[in-house]
Write a structure and sequence with these properties.
368 residues, 6-stranded antiparallel β-barrel, 12% helix, alpha+beta, 29% strand, 18 strands, single chain
Length: 368
């Protein structure tokens, strides 16, 4: 690391030591890396030597601290009007405009996350055209194994543990698995029907190289489809937490979706959805430890949700999304269903999710 960078980080460590809660950026601001914000990036050296007005500004706008590739990354709320129009603040810590990662151009950040409808255990039936990024993963024994999400025309995001037995087929555009054609029916009106579901073969199952089933870490994978999906009203991509799609801090509630086991211990024929609260990891860990003392959580790569009124993800929902609809009504995926305890509607227990933002680099590097 360069000497100037070391000095800058020392300054930020001083700032961080006197900070309370992280700032929440306004709608006219972006949480960007310090060096990407024109308002303050000219200041170098220890922060205690900066003008008092600058110290106060940075302290009040310090919005994120994270580690990436062994480096500390600090971010501030920066006025969007002062930022170059071709610069996005990426969650992996550098501006897209200067170091665009491999695979980023394959993500459609404008059309992603838009469902075509009006707007799990103890969940509700989803309407046709709702959550059109949902994928059913079918194994070599023709059994539904897991869920997933379409992130580009050729890639599905899921959990690493879902490939046992190996996934052979991905089904897109599904709502009710018992019907050949899914329709929304209206009294006295013509039904609104979707195109038939698409069953697409698997070209590659790309498991994270550091996945550990025993430690339950790095539970994330990509599926490359044998042929691109045909996007339609019932088949669309979900957004990933990149640049302006990032919500910091996380929303208090998010939505889970899947066909997995319900509180009645059977798989639902119809896609289910439910709203779950986001839990702090320390609170989640203490709750899970009462049911299974072998479970430990990693604050950087995992997050927790659910555990209220017996609403949680259940076996079979693995690989599915924890998602939130942004202010622009675009769905952004923040988590992948990883694991929970064997409660599924019998006890109040949260579920553990792979934190998608932590793996953005890995996801983009494996898109081609």
């Amino acid at each position: 690391m360069k000497h100037s960078q070391v000095i800058l980080l020392i300054g930020f460590l001083y700032i961080n030591s006197v900070l309370g809660q992280l700032a929440t950026c306004s709608s006219s601001q972006q949480c960007v890396r310090f060096s990407d914000c024109p308002d303050v990036r000219k200041y170098t050296g220890p922060s205690q030597n900066w003008p008092p007005s600058v110290q106060k500004y940075v302290k009040s706008r310090f919005c994120k601290f994270e580690k990436h590739a062994g480096q500390n990354i600090y971010s501030v709320c920066c006025d969007s009007r002062n930022m170059p129009t071709n610069t996005l603040s990426a969650p992996w810590g550098y501006p897209i405009s200067s170091h665009q990662p491999k695979g980023l151009d394959l993500l459609d950040m404008k059309a992603c996350g838009k469902d075509s409808s009006e707007r799990i255990a103890f969940g509700k039936n989803a309407k046709v055209f709702s959550y059109p990024w949902m994928a059913l993963l079918i194994d070599i024994n023709e059994q539904i194994r897991c869920g997933g999400t379409l992130i580009t025309e050729s890639y599905v995001l899921t959990a690493a543990h879902c490939n046992r037995p190996p996934i052979a087929t991905v089904r897109l555009g599904e709502n009710d698995i018992t019907k050949k054609i899914d329709c929304n029916d209206f009294d006295g009106e013509e039904s609104d029907c979707a195109d038939p579901p698409q069953n697409i073969g698997v070209s590659r199952f790309i498991r994270h190289p550091m996945y550990s089933s025993s430690k339950r870490r790095n539970d994330i994978a990509l599926i490359k489809l044998a042929e691109p999906a045909k996007l339609s009203y019932s088949v669309k991509t979900i957004c990933l937490p990149i640049g302006p799609m990032v919500r910091n801090p996380l929303p208090k509630e998010m939505i889970i979706t899947g066909w997995g086991f319900t509180e009645k211990r059977r798989t639902s024929n119809v896609l289910q959805y439910a709203t779950v609260p986001i839990l702090e990891n320390n609170r989640c860990a203490s709750t899970l430890a009462k049911l299974n003392d072998a479970i430990t959580l990693d604050d950087s790569s995992q997050l927790c949700a659910g555990g209220v009124n017996k609403v949680d993800n259940c076996a079979g929902d693995s690989g599915g999304p924890l998602q939130y609809f942004s202010r622009t009504s675009a769905a952004v995926q923040y988590g992948i269903v990883a694991f929970g305890v064997d409660s599924c509607g019998d006890k109040t227990a949260p579920g553990v999710y792979t934190r998608v933002s932590y793996y953005i680099d890995w996801i983009l590097q494996n898109l081609e």
